[in-house]
Write a structure and sequence with these properties.
This protein has three domains: 61 residues, SH3 type barrels, CATH 2.30.30; 76 residues, OB fold (Dihydrolipoamide Acetyltransferase, E2P), CATH 2.40.50; 59 residues, Beta Barrel (OB fold (Dihydrolipoamide Acetyltransferase, E2P)), CATH 2.40.50.140. By secondary structure, it is mainly beta. Helix content is 2%, strand content 55%.
């Protein structure tokens, strides 16, 4: 159990038997009243962000989480674009026959930077009120990945209107803004948390 002032960012807590990640926490005292911990929480299944205040007398349970190594296989679109939803297919690292899909909110922004057969860590929530096996509620994707540039339009001299950047397509199909000197075939490093280009690793 966590005391009110131990509910800190990156902790995963249980509210009504649902897992929430603490995004922000601020302990303050209103005039002569007792301290309050004002938090911002993200539901790890739905992705919805809510605000919650915890008082001195309150305690919450820390969620029972485990990890599982899984392998990314491919993504396919179900339905017609642009309304179609994406299905992300994975399998157990050591058992290709054990295949399953994860929704977009579970995979997160970093999913579009995953190459087939990439092994990632799945965060598993074991619901204390449920006897079923734990459910993967989020992925831990490496913060930095290196990907080849599939398409890069040629740089146009004097093109500074976009701050000296252009839109490139990576080998996974994801698009990012990159400096004008980036060419097709280059290998670049991407921050999967922000979805941004960070540097060129290797020239074509």
């Amino acid at each position: 159990m966590l005391e009110y002032n131990e509910i800190l960012p990156k902790k995963v807590i249980l509210l009504n038997n649902e897992p929430y990640e603490v995004l922000d926490a601020h302990v303050f005292r209103k005039q002569q009243r007792k301290p309050v911990n004002q938090t911002k929480l993200r539901h790890l299944v739905t992705g919805k962000v809510t605000e919650q205040a915890f008082h001195v007398s309150e305690k919450v349970a820390e969620a029972d989480l485990s990890t599982k190594q899984i392998k990314y296989l491919y993504t396919r679109v179900v339905g017609s674009l642009p309304a179609g939803r994406q299905e992300h297919w994975f399998c157990a690292e050591q058992n290709p026959a054990e295949r399953f899909t994860l929704p977009e909110q579970t995979v997160g922004l970093g999913g579009k930077f995953l190459k087939p057969n990439t092994v990632v860590e799945g965060l598993v929530f074991d619901d204390p009120s449920n006897e079923k096996p734990g459910k993967i509620i989020s992925l831990r994707i490496p913060i930095k990945v290196e990907l080849a540039v599939k398409e890069a339009p040629p740089a146009v001299k004097g093109n500074t209107a976009q701050g000296g950047t252009k839109l490139i397509v990576l080998e996974t199909g994801a698009t990012v803004n990159a400096p004008l000197f980036i060419n097709e075939g280059d290998v670049v490093r991407i921050n999967t948390e922000t979805g941004e280009y960070t540097e060129r690793v290797d020239k074509r």
